[in-house]
């Protein structure tokens, strides 16, 4: 993790890797509580409010660094964006963005990997599409709860496989496929919540 009183630009120093900012290994499986503690610890050192009596340059750097720490934390705490980020760090994609651009990526939804349908096997994609149709046709909360529980189990299993795939650092195709699959499953979870809100009305 960065030392106390750190007043150098993180990007210029080459500390643009979000995992390096928090001083944790580049791994899909992270200790969420530890990362949260590190986040607050970093913000206590970098928050702009602490630099009121400093020079204009130091004030500006604190704003930039604090924002980058926020961005890093928000990305790493979400499994889908964390997996997406690891895919790019591992140079799994054919075209990898310049390292300084990695921190500017907003990896939400299923667009971060381009045409994601090419990464998922047809059977899995078909099952997800069928599940979405069934969710849209749900007329009771009990029926929707069954879909919710099933999807939660699928997400948990996918995350476990992702951790193993990234840690082995060998099977990049599997890492890509599972990353996209997780994104689809999370989107399915969001569809369930939307349907839940609709049935509650």
TrEMBL record:
Source superkingdom: Eukaryota
Keywords: Chaperone
GO molecular function terms listed in the Swiss-Prot or TrEMBL record: ATPase activator activity; protein-folding chaperone binding
InterPro entries: DnaJ_domain, HscB, HscB_C_sf, HscB_oligo_C, J_dom_sf
J domain span: 17-89
Upper taxonomic lineage: Eukaryota, Sar, Stramenopiles, Oomycota, Saprolegniomycetes
Similarity comment: family membership: Belongs to the HscB family.
Any GO BP: [2Fe-2S] cluster assembly
Pfam families (UniProt xref): DnaJ, HSCB_C
NCBIfam families reported in the protein's UniProt record: hscB (TIGR00714)
SMART domains on file: DnaJ
Naturally occurring in which organism (per UniProt): Aphanomyces astaci (Crayfish plague agent)
Keyword Glycoprotein: no
Gene Ontology, cellular component aspect: mitochondrion
Name the record gives this protein: J domain-containing protein
């Amino acid at each position: 993790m960065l030392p106390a009183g750190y007043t150098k630009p993180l990007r210029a120093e080459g500390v643009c890797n979000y995992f390096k900012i928090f001083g944790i290994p580049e791994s899909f499986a992270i200790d969420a509580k530890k990362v949260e503690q590190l986040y607050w610890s970093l913000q206590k050192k970098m928050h702009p409010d602490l630099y009121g009596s400093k020079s204009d340059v130091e004030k500006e750097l604190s704003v930039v660094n604090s924002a980058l720490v926020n961005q890093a934390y928000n990305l790493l705490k979400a499994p889908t964006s964390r997996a997406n980020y690891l895919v790019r760090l591992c140079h799994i994609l054919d075209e990898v963005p310049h390292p300084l651009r990695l921190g500017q990526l907003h990896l939400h939804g299923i667009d971060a990997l381009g045409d994601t349908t090419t990464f998922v096997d047809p059977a899995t994609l078909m099952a997800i599409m069928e599940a979405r149709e069934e969710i849209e046709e749900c007329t009771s909360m009990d029926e929707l709860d069954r879909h919710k529980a099933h999807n939660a189990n699928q997400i948990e299993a996918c995350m476990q496989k992702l951790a193993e795939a990234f840690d082995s650092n060998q099977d990049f195709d599997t890492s890509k496929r599972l990353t996209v699959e997780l994104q689809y499953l999370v989107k399915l979870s969001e569809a369930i919540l939307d349907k839940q809100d609709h049935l509650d009305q």
